[in-house]
Amino acid sequence: MAGLSMLYNAAIASTFMKILLFPCYRSTDFEVHRNWLAITHSLPISQWYTSAISEWTLDYPPFFAYFEFVLSWIAKLLGFDAEMLNPYNLNYASPSVVIFQRSSVIVSELVLLWALREYVYSYPEINRGNAVLTAIDTFLSPGFLIIDHIHFQYNGFLFGLLIWSLILAKHNRLLLSAAVFTTLICFKHIFLYVAPAYFIYLLRVYCLSESGFRPQIFNTIKLGLTVSSIFLLAFGPWIYMGQIPQLFTRLFPFSRGLCHAYWAPNFWALYSFFDRVAYAFLPRLGYSFPEVPFTNAPTRGLVGDTMFSVLPNISPSFTFYLCLALQGCVLLKLFLRPTWRVFVGATTLCAWISFLFGWHVHEKAILIVIIPFSILSLIDRRYLEAFRPLAVAGYISLLPLLFTSQEAPIKYLFTGAWVAVLLHFDKNAPVPVKRVFLLNRVNLAYVAGFVPLFIYNSFLHNFIFGGRFEFLPLMLLSTYSAWGIFCAFISLSWLYFTDLK
């Protein structure tokens, strides 16, 4: 209980800090969720996924729509500003609305706290030291602070469901684990990234015998009925109304380009960077390339189709088959060695592959890689050394989401303190971890490289170029972060196929 009290104290202290952040910058996501409250409260269910009153149309699965519907009635019953529930009242953010929506994020985060408590209890009491530190590290994640409590989203409780599902699998409560994960997909479909790992693990461990691969018919029926019942509960009304094609159009907008406006730090950021460098320097060697319209250039900072000048253009189908092929290699090992630790590793790698090579990936999606990997990161020094560049680069890549000067001290100080603790973790770890000298030094050098990068982006760029090349600082940050995240992916992949048991 002493260890858990540390987690609870950290949660209480962070809650007071989050309340102080109520007046901070709010992104358009704040209005998105405020608008979803209004849509689900004031319009009939038949119009939830067809309404275009606002440009911020409902594009999360039905369980999240139900969640917003419940929140809207709580707001009404508690006497909050009724104007927030008017779908025609666009860009509305009275003090009452801000307090309600910010508070709803904090309260919903109790699901994450519960899941982390279960994670700690999943270890024997004598070995809970690292688990407690991992739980605190996760709850105080800069990603949750930046994205949920300032920028504004509801990732905390969603990742609480993911962690809880993984812990249920550790306890061999596989049917309940599948139910929780299916529920999670029906809240936010980005978690389809890791669905292949769940499918293979449940197939191998729950639907087939331990030896001989003999089908377990009764288990298969139970699993099928559980998953299909949850999907039917979520999507049933739209199946009845014949609106599934419209709903899926909202959930999967493939008309968007390969890269987001601010490049997510993935493989395509590196690809785009090398295309820009080649386009700038190869003509000096006598090569010529067709001019790409600015509206389609990868550095325009807009959402839409991306065209490359030198390297081949990428299609959505190519990214899909590439992810499928790479995930297939990961899933093959999971099928042949279906242990819980391999399952968590496969979950992490499936998310990582989708993040690195997927179509139109948002920078915020890095959380789906960092959070499950944190469960493995303290088991062995080698996992920790792969986790460090991922977590540091991933969280630092989120800092441009907060671009106003008032939030600069918060994002830099909190993220810097979290990174400092992560870098010094093993020195005070309750359980000794293996030491890998060279990898440790390389990772430390990589992390230190963010310092001159921030100095250039914050001061030197404008001094050198004035108002020109305004996208260059973001491009450098995204590319440098992508390099660390990609190398960390190679490290975990090597460990997964050689050491992970």
UniProtKB/TrEMBL annotation:
GO molecular function terms attached to this record: dolichyl pyrophosphate Glc1Man9GlcNAc2 alpha-1,3-glucosyltransferase activity
Residue spans crossing the bilayer: 152-169, 176-201, 221-240, 261-282, 318-335, 342-359, 365-380, 387-403, 409-425, 437-459, 471-497
Reactions that this protein is recorded to catalyse: an alpha-D-Glc-(1->3)-alpha-D-Man-(1->2)-alpha-D-Man-(1->2)-alpha-D-Man-(1->3)-[alpha-D-Man-(1->2)-alpha-D-Man-(1->3)-[alpha-D-Man-(1->2)-alpha-D-Man-(1->6)]-alpha-D-Man-(1->6)]-beta-D-Man-(1->4)-beta-D-GlcNAc-(1->4)-alpha-D-GlcNAc-diphospho-di-trans,poly-cis-dolichol + a di-trans,poly-cis-dolichyl beta-D-glucosyl phosphate = an alpha-D-Glc-(1->3)-alpha-D-Glc-(1->3)-alpha-D-Man-(1->2)-alpha-D-Man-(1->2)-alpha-D-Man-(1->3)-[alpha-D-Man-(1->2)-alpha-D-Man-(1->3)-[alpha-D-Man-(1->2)-alpha-D-Man-(1->6)]-alpha-D-Man-(1->6)]-beta-D-Man-(1->4)-beta-D-GlcNAc-(1->4)-alpha-D-GlcNAc-diphospho-di-trans,poly-cis-dolichol + a di-trans,poly-cis-dolichyl phosphate + H(+)
GO cellular component: endoplasmic reticulum membrane
Primary location: endoplasmic reticulum
Keyword Transmembrane helix: yes
GO terms under biological process: protein N-linked glycosylation
InterPro entries xrefs: Glyco_trans_ALG6/ALG8
Compartments where located: Endoplasmic reticulum membrane
Membrane topology: Multi-pass membrane protein
Pathway annotation from the record: Protein modification; protein glycosylation
Keywords: Endoplasmic reticulum, Glycosyltransferase, Membrane, Transferase, Transmembrane, Transmembrane helix
Enzyme Commission no: 2.4.1.-
Keyword hit for Hydrolase: no
Similarity annotation: Belongs to the ALG6/ALG8 glucosyltransferase family.
Protein name, UniProt field: Alpha-1,3-glucosyltransferase
Source species: Schizosaccharomyces osmophilus
